[in-house]
Amino acid sequence: MSELALRVITAVVLVAAVLVWYLCLPESWYAGVLVAASLLAIHELLRLSRLGYEPVYLLLAAPIMAGVVYVFALAGLVFLLLAWFAVFVWASRRGEVSFASFLGACWMAAWLAVFVWSLAVAHVRADGAHLIAAVCLGVWSSDIAAYCVGRTWGKHRLCPSISPGKTIEGLIAGL
Q1: Can you tell me the distance from the alpha carbon of 33 to that of 51, in angstroms, rounded to the nearest whole number?
Q2: According to the 3-state scheme, what is the secondary structure of 102-165?
Q3: In what helix (H) or strand (E) does residue 32 lie, and over which residues does it extend?
Q4: Burial 16-34 (b: 16+ CB within 10 A, else e)
Q5: d(CA 143, CA 115)
Q6: Residue partners of 148: CB distance under 8 A and separation at least 6
Q7: Among residues 20, 23, 27, which one has the least CA distance to residue 124?
Q8: Which of 150, 148, 141, 142 is nearest to 169 (CA)?
Q9: 8 Å CB contact between 147 and 165
């Protein structure tokens, strides 16, 4: 199976799953999947940050992300960051963790919480689910256009040190 065929099959399955999630599930199921997805994203963020003690950070994040989704409360984010800082101070006594990595993880976790909050708030609006689906379809269309044009006509590398496959032609098509 070619790479393009695999990408198309994966995209069709994921688009169908996400649209069913956005448009068809009851609100409680939507929120539960959103909490689970946010915790998976935080897990990946923590893994990439290499902070150590990922289960502790993740355990602290779980009730906060549930509050963000179910109660629409971002105030818990302050408590999450303070609790994470306490874990960081405890872990850094061993000299295993850099402050830059910790700060980056906190920054990304905060933005992730704001993003998840905006999805939760938008979804309960009358037109919110359709708005979210439309934005996702726009992003996916842009990504497909960038990939296809970049693969077919892309000659000028955009930034090879970061992503060697990206081209200026793909960027223009995506825009």
Answers
A1: 26
A2: HHHHHHHHHHHHHHHHHHHHHHHCCCHHHHHHHHHHHHHHHHHHHHHHHHHHCCCEEECCCEEE
A3: helix 27-49
A4: eebeebbeeeeeeebbebb
A5: 20
A6: 173
A7: 27
A8: 150
A9: no
User: For residue 171, how many other CB atoms are within 10 A of its CB?
Assistant: 16
81 contacts 106 by C-beta, under 8 angstroms: yes
Give pLDDT tens digits for 116-139. Answer: 999 899 888 888 888 888 888 888
- For 45-99, write each residue's pLDDT tens digit: 999 988 888 899 999 999 999 998 988 888 888 888 899 999 898 888 877 678 8
pTM above 0.70, yes or no: yes
**Residues 61 and 109 sit within 8 Å (Cβ to Cβ):** yes
